[in-house]
User: What shape does this take?
Amino acid sequence: MAFVPAMLFCQLGWSQYAADTVFTHVERMPRFAGCSGMEADSEAQKRCSDRALVQFISRHLEYPEEAKANQVEGTVYVNFVVDEYGHVQSPTLLMDIGSGCGEAALTVVRAMPAWVPGLQSGSPVKVKLNLPVQFSLRNAELALAEKFTITWGDIVGDTVSVEQLKRNLPFSVYVRGPEGDTHYVDELAFTYSTRSKRKTTAASRGGISDELVAIVEKSRRGGDFTITASVQENGRFIAVSRTFQVVN
Assistant: This one.
């Protein structure tokens, strides 16, 4: 996987307004969907739109195996039009780095949901955009790990109580892959961090050992409790982490 920088670059310049005109800059530029309920044209909405775009690319862009094998990294630039209905049209490559990265970038752009269209004089119009798609091997590994989820007993959300931690000690920690399949945990670690950033960590060969129980016993309200599970995917190890704030 790879990520896209939060800023979306557009070409500069104007075209004469007409029904079939494709603008390169308008009064309100197109926004990636998913940020409804915010004030239009607010900075918060712009930041939310950028984050939503980054998340979509990170989750859906596949790093080509050829590029991984050849250690290819860099930035691909894709040009496309967001029409007056928000649909993505005519994606084309402006700059490619080879080894299948260009086609991977085009594929994910074609898969984008409808955008919030750009506006000129209050009317939705076609707008042409340039999108930089970055391919980084380190970021690809991080993005792959984000596709896996850790499940432990009845713990949900971002908070957990000490009582919950103790209650779930008899249960195993599971890791589910992108397709919902369960993976065997090769190594399991619990970490408790205090507000002063002091950490206590213990690891086991996949099960809840006495050392891991001791980390639970040390956990207190106000700290952070992190579960890290190492699993195998296609012959390589992937570290999946989940952090909870310890509450009452």
